[in-house]
Design brief:
The protein is of the alpha+beta class. It is built from 6 helices and 4 strands, in the order H-H-H-H-H-H-E-E-E-E. The radius of gyration is 43 Å and the shape is elongated. The termini are far apart.
Amino acid sequence: MTSQINKQDLNVLVKDVSNDIQNKNMRTAKVAFTLPPITPVVLTLILFVVLIFNYERYVNPHETPTASVLSSGEQFALKAIAEDVETYRMVYGQLPDELPNSSAISAIVDVEYIKYDEKNFKLHMKTDNGEYSLNQEGTIQTVIRG
């Protein structure tokens, strides 16, 4: 008889639990959260303030190049050609009478080569940005914009 009671008690407990579960699903509270009506207006104002303070970066994210930056290509070309002349001097033991044919840049850029003696030479180039001269005196090279 105790097994009968236990089965009955167990059945009652199972029914109670299943009723609780079914009723609980029906009784769940629905929580509704709404933002105040002023929130979209405040967020829009914040967005406009951020855009106004960062406007200059959006218009021009890069700095305007200076004259020295614009002339760096010409200076590089002169130094590269001077390096080719120095390579010629190291290989043959003397400065060339004219620009060496191995200089690819001198074939593209109009550069005037002046040989003073066995140690000194000058490279001169005319560009839209002005005239550039590279003076080689011994081991010192200087680029002058004229």
